[in-house]
Design goal:
This protein has eleven helices and nine strands. By secondary structure, it is an alpha/beta fold. The strands form two sheets. Strands 1, 2, 3, 4, 5 and 6 form a six-stranded parallel sheet that branches. Helix 7 links the parallel strand 7 and strand 8. Helix 3 crosses helix 11. It is globular, with a radius of gyration of 18 Å.
């Protein structure tokens, strides 16, 4: 089967713990991914909220350098994708493809020129905030929702011009609508679930889901226990209910997967890239057709990024 995962924190875990990407005990390793036929993995460099300025820049550089070393070391099975041609080549050569993201706008250090640096380094997605406030705006866990700052509004426009997709996962609700007002460019929620299915400040309202659908973005269903349901062990059922809700709202071309592997606590039945085929089978047996699942697990994200990587 094919799998396009919009978000994982694996590369940061590997860098901080000096673990190889090919073989490890994390949720994701290249060896565990051998169960997949076509596999595109978005590797996000997570920026902790407390890191600012030069500390944030140095941390990004450290993890980015590790990402470069690991992709070069595993070039026989892994191809970093900066262009649509790269993605097509990975599919043609049966290699896993990887796309680089950053989780947290503190990587910009309040300097708009650093967007050009991210573009030069092949970053294709920027999650605007993590849970707290940064130079771009308020995160979803801030006590006061101030939305995007003046700098943040400028940044989302520049990101779109640079071909870097703004990611609203973790962003405050006001920040979400500020982003929608500033740009016509599609944006994504790379790893977010549905608040109507299970209420959590990190989950999307129906109005937010509808806005992402309207502008042909993507919503990656997150596997984190705390976002799926009260019954933390029935992860497959939680994914089913959140995915079905997006589909029910007209998101047949919007629904995708954003595992959050190696960035959160996930029930044992779903805790690893090697569990994805079993998840696909469960969803299919519980009423989601094969063609729809193929779109949600691969086609929707592939089509979206094929277009973005052409830009």
């Amino acid at each position: 089967m094919n799998f396009f995962d919009l978000h994982c924190d694996t590369i940061g875990e590997c860098a901080n713990r000096n673990l190889p990407l090919r073989e490890n005990e994390l949720h994701i390793s290249l060896e565990k991914g051998e169960c997949l036929e076509k596999w595109v993995q978005v590797f996000a460099i997570w920026m902790p909220d407390e890191k600012r300025g030069k500390v944030a820049a140095d941390y990004f550089d450290k993890v980015y350098d590790y990402y470069l070393r690991e992709t070069e070391k595993n070039a026989d099975v892994l191809l970093p994708c900066i262009s649509a041609d790269d993605l097509a080549k990975a599919e043609r050569e049966n290699k896993a493809a990887c796309i680089l993201a950053v989780e947290g706008g503190s990587v910009l250090c309040g300097d708009i020129d650093r967007i050009s640096l991210l573009k030069e380094r092949g970053v294709k997605i920027l999650t605007l905030t993590w849970n707290g406030e940064n130079e771009l705006g308020s995160g979803c866990m801030d006590k006061e929702d101030k939305g995007l700052t003046f700098f943040g509004k400028n940044a989302v426009r520049e990101l779109s011009s640079a071909g870097i997709v703004p990611d609203v996962s973790h962003l405050s609700e006001k920040g979400f609508y500020d982003t929608a007002q500033e740009i016509d460019f599609p944006f994504i929620a790379s790893h977010s679930d549905c608040g109507r299915v299970y209420p959590h400040k990190r989950n999307l309202t129906d109005e937010q889901i509808d806005e992402i659908i309207r502008r042909n973005g993507l919503i990656g269903v997150n596997f984190y226990k705390s976002f799926l349901s009260d019954d933390n062990e029935k992860a497959f059922d939680g994914v089913l209910r959140h995915l079905y809700h997006i589909l029910e709202r007209g998101g047949e071309k919007t629904a995708a997967m954003g595992s959050d592997f190696d960035g959160c606590e996930i029930a044992d039945e779903l805790a690893g890239i090697d569990k994805i085929p079993a998840l696909w089978e469960y969803l299919n047996k519980n009423g989601i057709p094969c063609d729809t699942l193929n779109s949600c697990f691969y086609g929707n994200a592939r089509n979206f990024f094929f277009n973005v990587l052409h830009s």
